[in-house]
Amino acid sequence: MKITSALQDTSDLKKNWSEVQLKLKETYGVDVFKSWIQNVEAKEINHNSLTLIVKTRFVRDWIVSHYADKILDFFQKLNPVVTRIQFEIHESFYNAKSADTNIVDFNTGSKIVNIQDNGYAANRLDHRLTFSNFVVGESNQLAFSAAKRVSESLGHYNPLFIYGSVGLGKTHLLNAIGNELKKTDKKIIYLSAERFMYQFVKSIKNKDTQKFKDVFRNADVLILDDIQFISGKEVTQEEFFYTFNSLTENQSQVIISCDRSPNDLDRIQDRIKSRLSGGLVVDIQSPDIALRLQILKNRCKTEETYFGKEVLINDEILSFIANEFKSSVRDMLGVLNRIIASSRIQNKTPTLQDAKMILKDLLSNMKAIISIEDIQKLVVSYYNLPMADFLSSRRSRHIARPRQVAMYLAKKLTTKSLPEIGRKFTGRDHTTVIHAIKKIEELMAADKKFEYEVQDISNKILKNN
Ligand code: ADP
Ligand code: MG
């Protein structure tokens, strides 16, 4: 018995950890994920404390100072027991598995002739991000053309500096350039500025800085994503500056992305800013509704080709998503994925209400869309009861049950706490609310017809909002 439950615990832990990793990937992007998160393992939970295994002290320190809060946050959502995180460093594991293969191998001794072939540069490019699946609209037209131009004629703009806020397609364009150039014999290096720093610090530790310099300075094309990352990091900036200068002196192409314009970068030396602005600076703006919709439609098509199966999302839902998720294409696509995934699991075409239900947590984060009063009104009219009776202290079944349904839905569809819900039902106690939720869940589990009834009410409420 004990063994089974221990096994169960481990598999839950692994599952939760994978889910947290996924969320971190969504939050910070693939690069950060691959650099810091991917190889971290969850070991155990002991007295409220989650133990993670990392491979080096450096990685641990980095995670602690950058991602630990978020990790805890995400983990607690899945398992509220956990209140702290601790780390174990397993260097041997690291060395034995040499899991570090997707990092430039500075120890091969061979010169850099084969940057492209050592699996490094090419591997880190995401082959799915191409020009052909980048949807062009007014907001990204300039950046798109410039990127295209550079990939056709190196040095045309040098450096090319693309900026815009998160999730608007910078990394996509940078990868598109890289994927295009991969077809040539040019030596390309593509990496995030964060990775650049990681490599650099590592080379210092390994007393290998010369090799680091050689690798970078011999590239024909350097594509550096999210340069804002080096702000405030003096030593890395210094190194970047030298790399940058020697590359441009050799007529090598440099392409950079950033979350803001060179001028708006703070804690970056002025001479670097001015070099960054020395070529072409273009921005990507937020997409308008037409572009958002087109991006969603394209993504559905891609999914269809990829899975060889029709994506069952109707235009009503696509418009809804395009209208609600305006600020980041990444978030918007994440939402679409969620609905697609859910429709696959349930093997049905979701209705708009289904979609709202699936996105309930996100929607209620953005605004409290449903009030307890809305729920009460609908339940009352559904069961054809006078509101006064409904809110009274009467306990007869035909009134008490709808009341419980309303409490249950209040918990499900709003972000209100149990005591808050209780208060809205003429000052009932939170334990009454708990009891109601339990009761309704039991009844739903036991009675399909009742389950359908509650679902129906819930849909009606969502539809009204
Ligand atoms: P950024 O690097 O600016 O934060 P990304 O390039 O990572 O943003 O884009 C986030 C997501 O949105 C990616 O999946 C990307 O493919 C997608 N995306 C952004 N803009 C477009 C576009 N115009 N067409 C197609 N997909 C896009
Ligand atoms: Mg990016």
Keywords:
465 residues, alpha/beta, 3-stranded mixed sheet, disordered N terminus, binds adenosine-5'-diphosphate, binds magnesium ion
What would you say this structure looks like, in words?
The protein has 465 residues and is α/β, with parallel strands linked by helices. 59% of the residues lie in helices and 9% in strands. It has 23 helices and 8 strands. The chain has helices spanning 2-28, 30-37, 57-66, 68-78, 91-97, 120-124, 141-152, 170-182, 193-205, 209-217, 234-249, 270-276, 289-307, 315-324, 329-346, 352-358, 360-366, 372-382, 387-391, 397-413, 418-424, 430-446, 448-464, and strands at residues 41-46, 49-54, 84-89, 160-163, 188-192, 221-225, 253-258, 280-283. Strands 5-6-7-4-8 form a 5-stranded parallel β-sheet, sandwiched between helices. Strands 1-2-3 form a 3-stranded mixed β-sheet. β6 (221-225), α11 and β7 form a beta-alpha-beta unit. The protein is elongated, with a radius of gyration of 27 Å. 33% of the residues are buried. Mean pLDDT is 85; it is low at 1-5 and 92-123. Bound molecules: adenosine-5'-diphosphate and magnesium ion (MG).
